[in-house]
Amino acid sequence: MQFMKLRRNLRVLNAKSFTIKAACFLGAFLILQAALLFTSCHKSKKPVIIWTSCAEFASYVEEFNASQDKAQAVVVYKKEPARSLPPAKDEETPDIIIGPWLKNSSTRKYFTPVDYMFSEQSINKSLFYSQLIDYGKINEKQYLLPVSFNLPAIVFKSENENLMPDSHLITLDEIKTVAGNFNQQNESGVYTAMGYGPSWDKNFLYLVSKLEGASYREKGTSFSWNSKSMLATITYLKDWTTARNTSTTAEQNFQFKYLYMPEYKQVSSNRCLFSYMTSDELFSLSSEEQSGLSFRWIQKDNTVPVDDDIITMGLYKDSKNTKDAEVFLSWFTKSTTQESILQRAADMHLDNITFGIANGFSSIKTVNENIYPTYYRQLLGNIPTGKYITTPNILPYRWPSLKEKVVIPFLSESTNIDSSATVASLETRIAEWSKQYF
Question: Is residue 393 part of a domain?
């Protein structure tokens, strides 16, 4: 029964939205999970049921089951765990839920605090980045434990290291200046090289808005923002394009003509200097693909913004196997466990499919600082310390859709200096989104 349920859950995946690497991982996930489920059928003890959107946990659970005899666990894949709550009447109740967007008004009521587990023997709170632990708090109680996170990076050819003003971090102003100096035009004024165009990557526009203080946050079923900072973002991006790249049309014509390959290959063409990638995108590349690349973390005022989709885990309030679920939480949040997980991923060559722990940096400081550089050599000496990272505000669980359908189109249209069309307001776009997608 569990196996059939898993197969139904996996069928909801849209194959077109996954890379070949991800498809391979999900295939391995299905095989591993089938083995786990059939194994659990022969055990009299009820297994811990874990709902997650992170396919990597199939491998983690297999290691958990093999490493101790106190508890056993199985994984049920949920594409959007936050939207799957509460469980349907015919579904088995989960014990642990792992995924993004778990901290908001719609989902927080389904979790129970885990502060009582904070101790040297169970969960050592001091191991985590303080900002990430605080992110999991609701009304001063620890409802969620951080699992993994990602950071924004600007990528370039290693041979251009000498152009960078700092060996670890880079600001938007520095990107703009260095990129502008890289530009070249022919006698007709057509760009033959362009350092970077903000309009090339819609997610970069969104990052700029975050760095400029747009401060997106949950408001009911929608979101609020800082209008003054949003206006400053639009002005900043338009000025960048005008001053450095002439026009939005020039940026997009250059992109169409020269930058038709994946981001990591764009900089190797010597046509552009920079490409924008997040840490999971960069470090899930193969060693061959990463060869010749370097990067800087993007910062403003000495802060590097964590990507919105932080992975957290929580104990379901109606768990029927709380004691064993606690065993899993305690096991997973130990640095020795995560070191073993990373070694296993390397041995199975899964580190070329996903990055680190749950496709991101670990929420445990020492794991990032001492263990990640062993497997990701470019991180040696270039992992931001805790003082740099800053977490997002609470966002609605439908944020991926709101960002894609509302925020990014607004930023894209508002910063196009060649368009005379009236740009619909965010309020108008939210109203339309609510009619179509909510």
Answer: no
Same domain, 22 and 97: yes
Pairing of strands 48-52, 73-77: parallel
Contact residues for 39 (Cβ-Cβ < 8 A; gap 6+): 65, 72
Q: Can you give the pTM of this predicted structure? A: 0.89
Cβ-defined contacts of 238-243 (< 8 Å, 24+):
238/415, 238/417, 240/176, 240/198, 241/197, 241/198, 241/199, 241/415, 241/417, 242/417, 243/176, 243/180
Q: What does the DSSP assignment read for 216-263? A: -EEETTEEE--HHHHHHHHHHHHHHHHHHHS-HHHHHHHHHHH--S-H
Query: Could you tell me if residue 392 is inside a domain?
Result: no
**Residue 128 tokens, joined:** 């985590």
> Looking at the domain assignment, is residue 389 inside a domain?
no
- Say which residues have a Cβ less than 8 Å from residue 121's Cβ, sequence separation at least 6: 330
> What Cα–Cα distance (Å) separates residue 273 from each residue in 22, 131, 178, 285?
28, 33, 9, 19
Examine residue 159 and state whether it is found in any structural domain, yes or no: yes
Domains identified in the chain, total number: 2
CA 144 centroid distance within chain: 17
CATH at residue 235: 3.40.190.10
Q: At what angle do helices 57-67 and 20-40 cross, to 10 degrees?
A: 30
Of 310, 281, 308, 312, the closest CA to residue 403 belongs to: 308
What residues contact residue 396 under an 8 Å CB cut-off, 6+ apart?
Answer: 101, 104, 106, 218, 221, 222, 223, 402
Residues 273 and 158 both lie in one domain:
yes
> Distance (Å, rounded) from C-alpha 438 to C-alpha 428?
15
**Could you report the per-residue pLDDT of 214-250, keeping only the tens digit for each?**
999 999 889 999 999 999 999 999 999 999 999 999 9
Q: Cα–Cα distance between 392 and 300 in angstroms, integer?
A: 14
For residue 364, the enclosing domain spans: 2-149+309-384
**Burial letters 121-142, b for 16+ CB under 10 A, else e:** ebbbbebbbebbbebbebeeeb
Same domain assignment for residues 9 and 130:
yes
Phi first, then psi: give them for residue 166, nearest 5 degrees.
-145, 155
Which is it for the CA torsion 99, 208, 416, 250, positive or negative?
negative
Show the DSSP H helices in 149-198 as ranges.
172-182
Helix, strand, coil shares of the chain, percent, nearest 5, are: 45, 15, 35
My answer on whether 75 and 130 are in the same domain is: yes
pLDDT per position as a tens digit, 361-388: 999 999 999 999 999 999 998 988 888 9
